[in-house]
Structures are given as C-alpha cells and as structure tokens.
Write a structure and sequence with these properties.
mainly alpha
Length: about 70
Amino acid sequence: MVTRDILSRRAVSIQLYGYGVLLLCIVGDEVFDIPHTVFGFPATPINWFEAGFEGVLVILLGLVSIVL
C-alpha cells in the first residue's frame, strides 16, 4: 500500500532530480557553449558569474519548492 509519506518522498525525489538536471543544463551551456556547438553562433567565453548566479537562483527556487 502506498502511503502519503511514500508519495511525498517520491515527489521530493522527482523535484530534486529535475532541479539537478536544470542546474547541469545551466552550467553545461556555459562550459560547452551549446549555441556555438549546435547552431554555429559566435563563440562566447565562459561567464562563471552568470552560471553561478543562475545556479544559486535555481537552488533557492528548489529549496522554496521543496520546503513549501
């Protein structure tokens, strides 16, 4: 029997997985320069500040989402 506790743990696990994938996409886009690699746009240097700032925002959003 699936209890409410098991369902809430599954929901939190799915949220953590989703936010982790989003975080990897943000950092991966900065490091691997996806628009340049895939679409041939002009290459841009790695902007660590932007990647870090967006990463912190995703982590904060994830924490708020999980706590509420």
